[in-house]
Structures are given as C-alpha cells and as structure tokens.
Amino acid sequence: MGAMTLLTDPWMLGPLEVPNRVLLAPLAGIGNWFVRLQAKRYGAGMAVSEMVSSHAIYYGNERTCVEMLRIHPDERAPGPAGAGGAPVSIQLFGESPAVMRSAAAHVAASTSADAIDINMGCPVPKVRKTGAGAGMLADPDLAVAVARAAGEGARDAGRELPITVKLRSGLRPGDESGYALAHRLVEEAGVAAIAFHPRSAAVHHKGVPDYELAGRLVESLPAPVILTGGLSDAARVRAAFELTGVSAVMLARGALGNPWLFRRLLSDDEREPARAEVLDELAWTIDRAVEHLGEARATRYLRKFYPWYVALLGLEPAAAKCLGESLQHADTLACVREQLGGVLAQSGNGPEPRYTAALAAA
User: Fold this and answer.
1) Are strands 22-24 and 248-251 parallel, antiparallel or unpaired?
2) Are 21 and 12 in contact (CB under 8 A)?
3) CB within 8 A of 335, min separation 6: which ones?
4) Which of 68, 153, 219, 294 is the most buried (most CB within 10 A)?
5) CA angle 328-257-279, nearest 5°?
6) Across all residues in the chain, what is the average pLDDT?
7) Longest dimension (CA), the chain
8) How far apart are alpha carbons 244 and 265 in whole angstroms?
9) What DSSP character marks residue 351?
10) Taking a C-beta distance cutoff of 8 angstroms, is the pair 202, 243 a contact?
C-alpha cells in the first residue's frame, strides 16, 4: 500500500506542476487578480479566474480583454504555495468552437496564464439559454468540439496549455450526463483534468453533493478529477478528499472572504482569525480593489464583499447587522474605513496589523 496522498502534496496537471491540492475555484463576478492573489497568500496551489466570455474576447471588448484577463505581477511572486508562485488558470465560457478557438489563442498569446478552464457547469439561466455553461450538457458533441477548439487555439498561439473543464453532474437530479461527458472530453478532446461539481444544474448550490458519483469518476477517468461543491469548512474538505480520492479540491463559496480556510487545510494552524486579522485582511482587499478599479467603482464593487468579513468579526448579532447595513450604505471608502477603524479600536486582540494603518487613523 502506498503512502496516503496529502493535500499538501504536489501533483501534475498535464505538463504543469501544481504545488498542492487546494485550489481556488472560478467565482463569477468575483475571481479577479486580487481575489486570486489573496488565496495564494494563504497557500492556494492554483487559482482560476472569474468566468470570462469567449465572445467578448473575440469581439475585442476592452474591459474584458484588459481588466478581466489581467494577471497581476504579484501573482507570480514567490509565496507559501511554491517557490515560483502558484499557477493561474483563465476560465472561458461559450458555445461556439470557432469563437472559443480564437479566445483561447488570445489568452495564450496575450497573458501569462498557465492553463485554460472551460465552464460547462454554470447553472444560471441567462448563460444556459445561450447553450453555454451547463447548457453544454445537452449537446455533448458540441461540448467536445468546444473543448478541442480551446486546445487548438492555445497551440495556434504557440503554447501547449493544459485545458480543463468544469462540469456539473447533470442537468436534473438523477441525471449523470456530466459523468458521461467527462469521459468524452478526456478521450476525444484531450482535456487534462475535470473539475467536477456533483450536483445537478437544476439545484444550483442546494442539496447534498453526490460524492459517491465523484468517486466513481475518479476510478474510471484516465485524468485527474478536481472536486468542488459543498466544501464549506476544513472538516468537510478533508472528509470529501479522503472519501472520493480526487487529485485536488477546489474551494468556492466557502472561501469567500475567508482565505484562512486555505491556511487551515495546508498547515497546522487551525485557529480562527482574530478580529484584528479580519479587519486587516479587509483593509488589504479595499486597497487592492482601488488599485484594480479606481476609487469610485471600488466603492460600489466592495459592497458584495463586506458581509463575508463582517460574519467573521465575532460581533453581537445586533452590532453585526448595524455595521453591515452601514457599510452597504457608505458613499465613500473614507466612510468605510472610518467605520472599520471604530471596530478595530474596540478589538484589542490579534497580531499587529500590516494593512490597517488607515483604519486606525480614521
């Protein structure tokens, strides 16, 4: 019997070495460079971008091509995940092989991406109705053609990037079309790995993931399987990893505003973050959002982030509700920093903050 595989062990994604087995999932509308960088700072072995439209790239949409495809230099800096930094994958979606080939060629030629992921799992109706996302499950021949085209596009640009596909188990409960499609994608399109969410598209994020089905896929698929879905805390991640035998796990909703989940899984540090640490991390996030979007857009964009951090502050329910509402209605980031500075002044615990000088002075 061989040694037990650990989450901290490196593994191969095609020709690409990934330094550990805990990855950041693609988070639609969220997974930009600083969210990926945050996950990497806490140990993530690889991070996948937010979902990017292949059609928007094909037609040269400036915000898509410049902003959504941006890989920050700091993502390449050495960190805890590995001496050369953790790999970055760009996730694309779309239903046209020709458009996907062009978009993949653009990603390979104009970014430093280490891999390309194709979204065939998004359950959102406006994506599915175009035939993209989980809509691909209804047309497996087209799905194979789209995945094959992505690899061809990367080669057109002179790069051999591993292509992965993120899949749901099926369209409806009991449907295993995603399981069947996974085999075709590997065997016919040369896909390097499958990121498998063992829930149907119909239930979105509800219900219990079918980890037994994921285990069956691991046993039958001649390529790595990456598990996602229902991995909301360290105990569940470890149990699912052991039960299914997957090559890696991919954290999604459980990691929102909670990079400490990576730390728990990849080190012996099981402690909850102190209030000052949470505020420190939020201050870092605010600064990076301004760098990414500018002050005005960051003020609006960050409103989706605040609830995740407020939930970790350990405040009394009434105080947490009041702070959350105040942050949502803040017109400027100066006002946000002032409110968070008041919480910091009352915390009196945790390590010396690195990023919260502005909060303390607010």
Assistant:
1) parallel
2) no
3) none
4) 153
5) 70
6) 92
7) 60
8) 17
9) S
10) no
Residue with tokens 């980890």: 211
- Residue 2 neighbours by CB distance under 10 Å: 4
Alpha carbon distances (Å) from 126 to 15, 48, 132, 133, 140? 35, 22, 9, 10, 20
**Annotated catalytic residue: which of 65, 122, 322, 335?**
122
pLDDT tens column, 311-357: 999 999 999 999 999 999 999 999 999 999 988 887 655 445 555 55
CB 161 within 8 A of CB 172: no
CA 178 to chain centre: 20
DSSP assignment string, 326-341: HHHH-SSHHHHHHHHH
**Spatial distance between the Cα atoms of 351 and 276, rounded to a whole number of angstroms:** 7
- Strand ranges (E), 146-269: 163-170, 193-200, 225-227, 248-251
Q: Scan for tokens 């991640």, then name that residue.
A: 237
- Cα 165 to the center of its chain, rounded Å: 13
Q: Are strands 88-93 and 248-251 parallel, antiparallel or unpaired?
A: unpaired
- Mind listing the pLDDT tens digit for each residue in 259-285? 999 999 999 888 889 999 999 999 999
Instruction: Write down the H helix ranges in 82-209.
Output: 97-110, 125-128, 140-156, 177-189
Give this prediction's pTM.
Answer: 0.93
Distance CA(149)–CA(127), nearest Å, equals 20
Alpha carbon distance 145, 335 (integer Å): 51
**Collapsing DSSP states into helix, strand and coil, what is residue 193?**
strand
Amino acid at 6: L
Contacts of 74 (CB under 8 A, 6+ apart): 37
Note the pLDDT tens digit of each residue in 115-152: 999 999 999 989 998 999 999 999 999 999 999 999 99
Q: Residues 174, 188, 214, 30: what is their CA dihedral angle, to the nearest 10 degrees?
A: -90
* Residue 346: C-alpha distances to residues 56, 68, 242, 309, 339 (Å): 47, 38, 41, 16, 11
